[in-house]
Amino acid sequence: MPDDSELDRIDPQLTEHKLSTGFALGVRRMRTRQFFRLLRILTHGAGPAMTQAQLDFAGDPGEFGTKLLMLVVMSIPDAEQETIAFLASMCQPAGLTDKQASQMTKQETEANQALWDRYGEELHNPELEDTFDLIEVIVRQEAPELQALGKRLRKTLELFQKTGQDKTPPEPEPTPRDLSSPVPSRRRSTRSATPTDGPTSTSSDSPSAG
């Protein structure tokens, strides 16, 4: 029987969070596209700090989450657009009517649209405290999954190195030429020089020459 974390993945529940303006958001669970957006923030902003942080994927989960949170926060100034895009992809308005469009009434459709419009205004340029609060909620929520993923990647890399697959194969040595066979030499063709003094006249003693 699957445990609680597996059930959350099968039927993820949104984590509700209120902004400083009072507008309520639902924080989603991270999936592939959101993960790549998070990596874009870290690679654009953190850079060398990622190696200095020395994230321990096998260490204490709380310490891992704290270090990861600091890395993301340090990356925000150099990854402004990536951060806003990441937050927008991780959240949605709270209170949406969860029905197919064909099954919703006109009032429900209009109410959902109003929530999405307000959502776009709130996350276009959120308050600074709201940005950091959302980042913290997301990182704390996803840290265990990211740490487990890091362990898998590290094991794969170690196996890759043990089997020598990380090394560039040597280039093949040139085959030595067979010294017993003479090397064919290119024969230079000799052509007679073309006269350059112009046409020459010849005298003839033949009667027909006159």
Number of domains: 1
User: Radius of gyration, Cα only, in angstroms?
Assistant: 37 Å
Strand order within the widest beta sheet: 1-2-3
N-to-C order of helices and strands: HEEHHHHEHH
Structural class assignment? mainly alpha
Count the E strands.
3
The helix fraction, in percent, is 40-55%
Determine the mean pLDDT: 77
Shape: elongated
What would you say this structure looks like, in words?
With 210 residues, this protein is mainly alpha-helical. Helix content is 51%, strand content 5%. Strands 1-2-3 form a 3-stranded antiparallel sheet. The C terminus is likely disordered.
Helices and strands, with pairings:
Blueprint: H1 4-10, E1 15-18, E2 24-27, H2 32-46, H3 49-53, H4 61-75, H5 80-90, E3 91-93, H6 106-124, H7 128-162
Antiparallel strand pairs: 1-2, 2-3
Helix pairs in contact: 2-4, 2-5, 4-7
Question: Gist?
Answer:
This protein is mainly alpha-helical and 210 residues long.
Question: What distinguishing features does this structure have?
Answer:
210 residues; disordered C terminus; 51% helix; 7 helices; elongated; single chain; mainly alpha; 3 strands; three-stranded antiparallel beta sheet
